[in-house]
Write a structure and sequence with these properties.
The chain is of the alpha+beta class and 384 residues long. Helix content is 32%, strand content 27%. The chain contains eleven helices and 17 strands. Helix 3 crosses helix 4 and helix 6 packs across helix 7.
Length: 384
């Protein structure tokens, strides 16, 4: 085996976008609180016929078109915006993409950490079955109550990753550090359609998990901080990534230039929080930047409230630029339809639909897949 890692990576987001200057004006908040305090400029908002499944399938489709369906032995779908208490969202994506029947499908859940758990599971599957490929998808819609303190950090996105031997983009190194504690910093009860969050506790726990997982990473053979060229952190808002880097610098007694984390924030500033997808959106931003990264090491810090943190590293492969999807990602961000506050609030209010009422959703997304509605208490999807 010549290393295992991410062979291809594709980003998708929702088709609507709200400029946070509009939200600031509506709520009477200084826009600099969003732009500089949070490090956010815009947030993606799903259309009525978009959800985690449509974004996930849209992210995965370019990978299928480039590499084919053969040898995909599993679809591992990470989300904390689950659409069913039993049926895996991966099953819907499997069908929409026409993947082989001989394919495992499963949904992973642990707040924003689920995507990293799915990636680690994929690496293990390939170790047991060399030559297999695994499609890992992280897709979420971050929703908070209207007029809440967290409202400006909402967003929506999906990232699909093809995990394989001899990867074209990045090889995942073997050392990884983890940290877990039972803490009620952020959660969403079964009877709530928006998350609950203790903001101060969440920040403190995020940082505690960052340092705890770093210490475990080093104890398990991970490299020194000076050997890591760039950092990607889970970004509930992009300034959190900078806070984590500063905390690591103090913790290790090392001076770490913020230029080693800022490239990771380029896409998240425009998308908002995307929960499980956030970390991998930041990785896409680093890989799509102007710097030649061949042979460079990137540190990834994944955090999931409740809470678990993991730190791991990847090394960028020579020739990775030949597989870039930077143009497609930037086009997707540029082509979103701007919405006003009234439209945003209407979409927010209509995002949750009772399963007991059959409904046909009019087509409005320009994307390749759409949520058709509910029939017989089951969700229905279609290719546009």
């Amino acid at each position: 085996m010549t290393g295992v890692g991410i062979h291809d990576l594709s980003v998708a987001t929702a088709s609507r976008v709200l400029d946070l200057d509009l939200l600031a004006a509506y709520t009477g908040v200084d826009p600099d609180k969003f732009r500089f305090g949070l490090g956010q400029e815009r947030m993606s908002v799903p259309a009525p016929d978009e959800d985690i499944v449509t974004m996930a399938a849209a992210a995965a489709l370019p990978i299928i078109e480039r590499h084919g369906r053969d040898d995909i032995r599993a679809v591992l779908f990470a989300t904390e915006s689950g659409i069913d208490q039993s049926k895996s969202a991966a099953v819907f994506v499997h069908e929409l993409l026409g993947l082989p029947r001989s394919c495992r499908v499963v949904e992973f859940k642990h707040a924003c950490y689920g995507g990293t758990a799915a990636l680690q599971a994929a690496l293990g599957l390939i170790a047991r079955e060399p030559g297999a490929r695994v499609l890992v998808i992280a897709s979420d819609v971050a929703r908070y109550a209207l007029d809440s303190a967290a409202e400006a950090t909402q967003g929506a996105a999906a990232v699909a990753m093809l995990v394989s031997e001899d990867p074209a983009l990045v090889e995942v190194e073997s050392a990884a550090g983890v940290w877990t504690a039972d803490i009620d910093d952020f959660w969403r009860p079964n009877d709530s359609d928006t998350a609950l969050v203790d903001g101060r506790l969440s920040v403190d726990t995020y940082l505690a998990a960052a340092l705890g997982s770093w210490d475990d990473y080093r104890a398990r053979g991970g490299v020194d901080v000076g050997e890591i060229d760039f950092f990607c952190h889970h970004q509930p808002y992009t300034r959190m990534a900078v806070k984590a880097l500063r905390a690591l610098a103090v913790h290790t007694g090392t001076e770490i230039d913020e230029a080693r984390v800022l490239p990771s924030t380029a896409y998240n500033r425009q998308i908002g929080n995307s929960y499980t997808a956030s970390l991998f959106v930041s990785l896409a931003a680093v890989l799509d930047g102007d710097t030649d990264l061949a042979g460079r090491r990137i540190g990834l810090y994944s955090y999931g409230s409740g809470s678990t943190g993991e730190f791991l590293t990847v090394v960028v492969r020579p020739g990775y630029r030949d597989h870039s999807r930077a143009a497609a990602t930037r086009a997707a961000l540029a082509e979103r339809t701007p919405i006003d506050i009234a439209t945003y609030r209407q979409l927010h209010a209509g995002a949750t639909r009772p399963s007991a009422v059959d409904v046909e959703i009019p087509e409005s997304t320009p994307g390749p897949f759409r949520f058709r509605g509910i029939a017989g208490r089951a969700r229905r999807y279609a290719r546009t």
